[in-house]
Write a structure and sequence with these properties.
This protein is mainly alpha-helical and 241 residues long. The chain is 58% helix and 3% strand. It has one domain (2-57, 77-240). The protein is globular. The protein starts with a helix and ends with a strand.
């Protein structure tokens, strides 16, 4: 999905506004587990998402049990929300930065979040769509670790997988708009940042910055119970090795 993000960023001339050196993009803005971890762990719904996503990377054991009764999935619109300025996750995301850097980092995050709507449009998804944000987070984190691109024809079924996942059993569909907005912003900003940093490092390689971004991508996936070494993407989306 990095290629898709590049099209959005170049069209908005945002890449030109990023730091001149790729290592600055990583070293200035990348957090080593701080605010992203804190913001994610503060969510009351991530633990359920983590459990279900973790199962996605492992084959389910075959058990001679009766199938669970089928329940109707939540309406698709239940995975969107109405955003409000007071519910934004950005203050929590920048809280771990030095005080003198917070306004600068918050501005970068707002730029990235503002361009995420272009990804939703590119893939024909609704505005403020949590499954699309989650798919970007997963795909770009995987790309950062492995260097293997998640192509658009693989990203579309991944979004559908995330939609089914979030509709079934996570409780997210019934969460408040404020909870959905915070989670959406964390996933969208992290995904956009990871993709942007990866693009910069392709153009201006730096081994130290690349190692940090790779470690960050692995940590992003681990927060959701996913192991990139056991993941692959195909025409059906996310698959286990």
């Amino acid at each position: 999905m990095v290629r898709s993000v590049k099209a959005i960023l170049v069209g908005a001339a945002l890449l030109a506004g990023m730091p001149a050196r790729a290592q600055d993009m990583v070293n200035v803005y990348l957090m080593d587990g701080g605010a992203f971890n804190n913001a994610l762990n503060a969510s009351t719904i991530v633990s359920r998402t983590k459990a279900l996503l973790g199962n996605k990377a492992e084959p389910a054991p075959r058990q001679p049990t009766r199938p669970a009764p089928r329940t109707a999935p939540a309406p698709t619109r239940a995975l969107q929300f109405t955003s409000t300025p007071g519910a934004t996750a950005i203050p929590a995301m920048v809280a771990a930065y030095p005080a003198g850097k917070r306004s600068e980092v918050a501005a970068v995050f707002r730029q990235l979040l503002g361009r995420f709507g272009g990804i939703e449009q590119m893939f024909g998804q609704p505005h403020n769509d949590l499954p699309t944000a989650l798919a970007l987070y997963v795909a770009t984190s995987y790309e950062a670790v492995t260097g293997v691109e998640v192509k658009p024809d693989q990203a579309r079924p991944l979004i559908a997988q995330m939609r089914s996942l979030l509709q079934d059993g996570t409780g997210i569909a019934g969460a408040s708009d404020a909870e959905k907005q915070k989670l959406y912003e964390i996933f969208a900003i992290t995904g956009m940042f990871t993709a942007t940093a990866g693009l910069e490092l392709r153009q201006k390689p730096d081994p130290v910055a690349s190692a940090r971004l790779k470690a960050s991508g692995r940590a992003n996936l681990a927060r959701l119970g996913l192991d990139p070494d056991r993941m692959r993407f195909g025409a059906e989306g996310l698959l286990s090795r």
